[in-house]
Design brief:
It is a single chain. Helices cover 56% and strands 11% of the residues. The chain has 21 helices and 15 strands. It has an eight-stranded mixed beta sheet with strand order 8-15-14-9-13-10-12-11, with helices on both faces. Strand 2 and strand 3 form a beta hairpin. Helix 2 runs antiparallel to helix 12. The longest helix has 92 residues. It is flat. 23% of the residues are buried.
């Protein structure tokens, strides 16, 4: 069993691409003369230019240019390596060097007439060799000019080095003088400072002040600690602490080692304790009384175990305890007063010590400020002295470089005799060919942008929103009867062509509309030669093949050709009916081959447009509608006459025909807008003369499906 394999469906983007490619191919086939004309013009222009070109003479020479040279005493003359090559090439081709070379040639060889000469220069790869070329229309002047350019370039380089050296030397000397003045000014400032201040004494005084401030801060910390303890601890805790930390005698040697000047010395904490030793007796008595009371209480407790409370010994102990308690209260009061006095004394000592520290800090800061000023002057002098020595060394190096020829530039090859060079004709013709082809493509692209003719179904959907009823391919046989329509026959061998009309018939039969389906169908288009008569005739034939009663009416009263296609008499027709000369039934003729009725256009009237405005038109077509299943009306182009626009509103529906690669989208839209203004019911669009070679019409390749000998799948 044979089977037919369907080709793969192209994606939307690929289909659009191949459709656009096909559009351009069709454009080239239609406008092939455009690129041919532009290429011919390009070749002619280049041939003319080649004929007008005079012979060019080229002379070349070589220079050796070194970017760096080392000199004695570490002196170096160098150019910036990154920009050296580009700088030298620009200098060789500069307007200044060319002007000096022109003047040199005129002075040395006045017999040579000046001519325009172009100079080009380039560096040999991985060398310090530069090649210069001069091209001109006269060989002797070209050679002399290039030689002068090389000499003037060397001269300009030497002048540049001399100018730079002199300007650098002047700038360095100015800087040396400025630095020397600054050094002298610093020396004067240092001498004045030394006269007003003893630097050695200030250094020693600064060290002593630092040591003294350290001792004072240490004493201040001790006093603050003692003061805080006295403030936070209770009387009993202070007495216990003082008894535990009782002062020990200090050896004379230790005292002498920590001695400070008598006029700037303050007593430390231990000395304060020793000086207040005679005041510790209340605290000792308080502690002793407290201990004595505890002992008496213990004795009383022991005696109370076997003696009564009124026993003489118990009474004596109670009296002694009372006496000791009175002494304890007295000693406690004295100890509290002593503690408060000691705390107040510590506060005063701390306050005095803080004031002394502030005074000493002011003195130390003053000494440090003056020493900092002196050190700053010394550092400035050292910095200026180092800079001065480096600048003096630079002055010596620049002087040395001026006295030595540092230029490593020499002429390696003098310019030779200029040789004639002819421009290749093939290259110029190729350029003309390429430019002409590009111009032709640009013109074709512009024409395509201007051309809005519809070439495919994809483009049709991009321009119009109306439904598409069908697409009619080109007639494969191109069978014409004296220019008339190519009609279908029963069992027509043009299978694809016949199926496209059946597709339109099905679209009309199953159209999604409400109410009564249209029976009177008007076939029209925007402009002539879009295949309306052929489409109307074959649509009527296709409907008749389905068993419908069909009436084909030729409403193109000016150039209708339906009678020629079906070989019927055109003596009487629609023009006679509309002019009320005969009944429409009397004008009907039957086609012997297709078995359906036809009304030809009849004789061409002098006023066809007015006939369609007659009040008889609606009633006539209503009678036709009542007697036939379908009435297919062929009409004139909308934009050519007003006939169709007057007739279309009186029929059930209109089918708008568009010819592929022929109909302008703008004109078609204008024609449909005109119909919409007349309240015409446009049923849909039909594309005529479709090119089945486009990728989106791959299904037209199934021609073998219609072969009678094909097996069922």
């Amino acid at each position: 069993m044979s089977s037919i394999t369907a080709p793969p469906t192209l994606s939307s983007w690929s289909a659009a691409f191949f459709t656009k490619l096909h559009r351009y191919r069709a454009l080239v086939k239609r406008r092939w003369y455009v690129p041919l004309l532009t290429i011919s013009v390009g070749l002619c222009i280049q041939a003319y230019r080649f004929a007008q070109i005079q012979p060019t003479y080229i002379s070349s020479g070589k220079l050796i240019v070194s970017p760096r040279m080392f000199l004695p005493e570490n002196a170096v003359v160098s150019d910036e390596s990154v920009n050296f090559i580009g700088t030298q090439l620009e200098l060789m081709q500069s307007a200044e060097v060319r002007a000096r070379a022109r003047a040199r040639v005129q002075a040395l060889k006045p017999d040579l007439a000046p001519i325009p000469v172009s100079i080009s220069a380039y560096q040999q790869p991985r060398t310090s060799i530069f090649t210069l070329q001069a091209s001109g229309s006269e060989p002797n002047y070209t050679q002399a000019f290039l030689d002068a350019v090389m000499e003037e370039y060397i001269s300009r380089r030497k002048e540049t080095r001399t100018e730079k050296s002199q300007s650098a030397l002047l700038a360095i000397k100015e800087q040396v003088d400025k630095i020397e003045k600054e050094i002298n000014q610093v020396d004067e400032e240092m001498l004045s400072f030394q006269k007003e201040n003893n630097v050695i004494f200030m250094e020693e005084q600064g060290n002593k002040n630092a040591t003294y401030l350290i001792n004072l801060n240490k004493q201040l910390d001790d006093l603050n600690t003692e003061f805080q303890l006295l403030s936070k601890l209770t009387l009993d805790q202070n007495i216990e602490r003082r008894s535990t930390n009782s002062p020990k005698p200090q050896s004379p040697a230790k005292s002498s080692s920590n001695a400070v000047p008598s006029d700037k010395r303050t007593p430390d904490t231990e000395e304060i304790k020793a000086a207040a030793g005679d005041l510790l007796s209340p605290e000792s008595e308080y502690r002793n009384s407290n201990q004595q009371i505890q002992l008496l209480l213990i004795q009383r407790d022991e005696l109370s175990q076997y003696l009564k409370p009124k026993h003489p010994r118990i009474i004596a102990l109670n009296a002694e305890i009372q006496r000791q308690q009175t002494l304890l209260d007295m000693f406690k009061k004295q100890s509290l007063e002593q503690l408060n006095n000691r705390r107040e004394g510590l506060r005063l000592q701390i306050q005095n010590l803080q004031e002394l520290i502030k005074s000493e800090e002011v003195k130390a800061l003053d000494v440090n400020r003056r020493m900092a000023d002196y050190q700053r002057m010394k550092s400035k002098k050292q910095r200026l002295q180092g800079l001065y020595e480096r600048l003096v060394s630079s002055v010596q190096s620049v002087d040395l470089s001026q006295n030595i020829d540092q230029e490593m530039i020499s002429i390696m090859e003098r310019p030779g005799l200029a040789q004639a060079v002819h421009v290749g004709m093939s290259g110029m013709l190729f350029q003309g060919l390429l430019l002409g082809a590009l111009a032709g493509v640009a013109i074709l692209f512009l024409l395509d942008r201007i051309d809005d003719r519809i070439n495919s179904f994809t483009e049709l959907r991009d321009h119009f929103e109306e439904p598409v009823l069908g697409q009619i391919p080109m007639d494969p046989t191109l069978a014409r009867k004296k220019g008339g329509p190519s009609l279908l026959v029963q069992d027509d061998r043009r299978h694809v062509y016949a199926e496209s009309f059946r597709n339109v018939r099905s679209s009309l039969l199953f159209m999604a509309i409400d109410g009564t389906r249209p029976k009177t169908l008007l076939i029209t288009s925007a402009i002539p030669n879009e295949g309306k008569s052929t489409f109307a005739s074959n649509l009527a034939i296709t409907m008749a093949f389905a068993g419908s009663r069909v009436l084909l009416v030729d409403a193109d009263l000016r150039r209708g050709r339906i009678h020629d296609a079906f070989s019927v008499n055109n003596q009487h027709g629609l023009s006679d009916i509309l002019s009320n000369q005969m009944n429409w039934r009397d004008a009907i003729q039957e086609s012997a081959a297709y078995h359906f009725h036809i009304i030809p256009r009849g004789a061409t009237p002098p006023n066809p447009g007015e006939l369609f405005l007659s009040s008889l038109v609606p009633s006539i077509f209503q009678e036709m509608r009542n007697e036939y299943d379908y009435v297919v009306v062929d009409s004139a182009p909308i934009l050519a006459t007003d006939d169709t626009a007057s007739l279309a509103p009186k029929l059930d529906g209109t089918i708008f025909l568009m010819r592929t690669s022929y109909t302008s989208a703008r004109l078609s839209r204008n024609a449909m807008d005109l119909l919409y203004q007349r309240q015409v019911n446009i049923l849909g669009l039909v594309m005529n003369f479709v090119d089945t070679n486009l990728p989106e019409y791959y299904y037209y390749q199934y021609k073998e499906y219609y072969n009678r000998g094909a097996r069922a799948t």
